[in-house]
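Hi L.,

As promised, Cell division protein DivIB:
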Amino acid sequence: MAKKPVTRIDPRKELSPYLNHEFNQQKNSRKSQAKISASLPSLQAERRRSLRRRLGLIMSVSILAIAGLGYYISPLANISTVKVIGASDLPIKGIVKASKIKASDKVFDYLFQQKDLSQKLSKKYPEIESAQAHLGHVNQLILQINERKTVGYLKDGDDYRKILSNGKLGSTAITWTKVDQDKPIFVGYNKSSSLKEDLNLFNSLPKSFQNQVKLLSGNTRRKSQVILVMKDGNVIIGSTVTLKSKLKYYDEIKVKAGKNSLIDLEIGAFSRPLTSSEKKAYGVS
């Protein structure tokens, strides 16, 4: 019986792929472990830095909070002086009194009570539209007063009172030297109702015409009558009902009439020179 040929197998050759794969796996594992070992100190250092930043932030906020609380409860936070700015004709002491600010009050309390402060001052002084509180020096409170716009002046005896943009009168009387000469003067208005009506009429007129008006007189023959003394020396008599619509004729009549004329727009539209007594009555020279 013939012998079968024997195939010789080298075990190392057969196992070499597996051995090489295992060797590579071990090699890669050692590299990964080496990388992880190398990154651990960096990761730990970054964590320490992050922890220090958080601790620093917490400590800073805590220190500021403690310092702020310490300042608030200390006498340094008490109001020492009050400075009022923006009040042109109002009494400074009166404003401080109306605000009810006391020396024992805390400065910061008023920084968060702006609306309440404005209401107190506006109630006492109609001239004040709003007020803001600001911190001056360490314990100085500054009151910034914002006044309402003045649209004219009411003659009150020998003095004058501001007519404010909301239709109310100023609380204090001022002298002629403090009157804005560009604003109209309302003279002879003994009733607030007639003043309000004529003021509403004046505010409805064109701005270019308003700037030419020097004086409005309440000394009229009829309730519906309105008298305007112009800066150019002319006097206009009109009706509160029709004056606005008839103003389109004023410039043309003024050119023909000349200076110091009475221009009547109440019934029709005509003019004549002012008499000496009328000039004196209306303050025209």
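The chain has nine helices and eleven strands.

Thanks again for sending the construct details.

K.
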